[in-house]
Design a protein that fits this description.
With 268 residues, this protein is mainly beta. It has a single domain (5-267), classed as Sandwich (Jelly Rolls), CATH 2.60.120.10. The chain is 4% helix and 48% strand. It has helices at 20-23, 261-267; strands at residues 5-6, 13-18, 29-35, 40-44, 48-56, 59-63, 66-71, 84-88, 93-98, 102-110, 118-120, 128-130, 137-143, 154-160, 165-166, 171-172, 174-177, 181-183, 185-193, 199-204, 211-216, 221-224, 231-232, 238-246, 255-256. The strands form 6 sheets. Strands 1-22-19-24-14-13-12 form a 7-stranded antiparallel beta sheet, with no helix packed on it. Strand 20 (199-204) and strand 21 (211-216) form a beta hairpin. The radius of gyration is 17 Å and the shape is globular.
Amino acid sequence: MTTLLRKPFGTHGKVHDISAAGAGWRYVGFSLYRLRAGESATEHTGSNEVMLVMVEGKARVSGAGTDWGIVGDRMDVFERTPPHCVYIPNDEQWSAQAETDCVLAVCAAPGHGGHSARRVGPDDITLTERGTGTNTRYINNIAMEHEDYCDSLLVTEVFTPAGHWSSYPSHRHDEDDYPRITYLEETYYHRLKPHNGFGIQRVYTDDGLLDETMAVSDGDVVLVPRGHHPCAAPYGFDMYYLNVMAGPLRKWRFVAAPEVEWILERDS
C-alpha cells in the first residue's frame, strides 16, 4: 500500500497528525481536529509556525497571548466562502474551544519569529477562478507568497467542480533552483461532495521511479514529497482540497511535466 495516502484515524478528535519527521521530509506538518461542540484542542507550536484554518464550523480561538474571538462561519466547506484562519508563530501556545461541531486544520512549517500572530480572512481572501474548460477550478489563497503573513508556510484552498482536473497541467516543485523552480513539500487534505464519493490523485516523477495513482476519499491526506501531482474529480463528485507547502524559500515556482508543456503554451 502506498505511503503517500494517509487515512484519518477516525471521525472524532485529532484524526490526522502528520509531522515533517513522520512524513520523511523536512518542512511540512499537517494535523486535523474534528471537534464536537464544547470540546477543545490545545497545542504548543514549538519550532513551527502554524496557520489554523477553520474548515467548517465555529470555535473560540486564543493564542500567542490574545483571545481571537469566534473564528469561522462556514458550516459546509462546499459553500466556497472564504475561510477564517489564525496565524500563530513558533514558540507559542494556542487553543480552540468548539462553539459548534467543527473541523480545524493545523498547517505547520518551520518558524523563525519573523511574523506576529494575526487573524487571516475572510475579508482579505477572495475566491478566484483559474484554468480553462475542464481545467477550471476556484482558489482561496490564504497565505501564498504575496500574503506576507508567514516565515515558511504557503497555504491555499482549491475547489474543483465535478468532471474537472486540478493541479493540472501536471507540474513539480522539487528542486531548489530559484527562480526556475523551488523546492516545496506539499500536503493535500481532500474533501468530496457527496461525501461517499472519490477522487483521483497521481504523484509521479519524470524518471518513473515514483509513480503512484491513488483513489482519495473524503477526509484523506496525500503527501507530495516530489514529482508531479495532478488531481481529477469524477463526474458527480465535487472536490475540495487544502494545500500546505513549505521549503527553504517561501516562493512557489514550478516546472511543467514534458508531456503537458504544450497545454501551458496554448493557454498562456
